[in-house]
Amino acid sequence: MAYEGFRPDIGPLDAPFWEALRRHELVVQECTACTRLRFVPTELCPYCASPASTWTPVTGRGRVYTYTVVHRAPTPAYQADAPYALAYVELEEGPRVPTRLVDVEPGAVVVDLPVEVVFDDVAPDLTLYRFRPAG
Length: 135
What we know:
Elements: H1 15-22, E1 27-31, E2 37-38, E3 53-57, E4 61-70, H2 76-79, E5 84-91, E6 96-101, E7 114-123, E8 126-133
Antiparallel strand pairs: 1-2, 1-3, 4-5, 4-7, 5-6, 7-8
């Protein structure tokens, strides 16, 4: 069955992020001037305004920072999965990333739950990242 969910509008700024996901690697931008990590990708560092950055791999480990449980999906493509948990995960390296939690019942999700990244090859040209309970 073809993937019917939302597809990102991939542009030059974030193409390296999506290419890394297809390799099953999670990366974030690192400012080469102040060395701070950031997500989502931006043209200028929000900390020092430098335009210089590189993409750096992260461990893919973190903790649930906050979450919500979706009972009524935004489109029919997601309704069969409801209820499901959406979260912000704070990576070990610091940045917070939005994600869908998998392999966990929504009622079992708690703030500070240790999680790890998993990769979901939803189409030949698209890999999404998700997080599941660590271990």
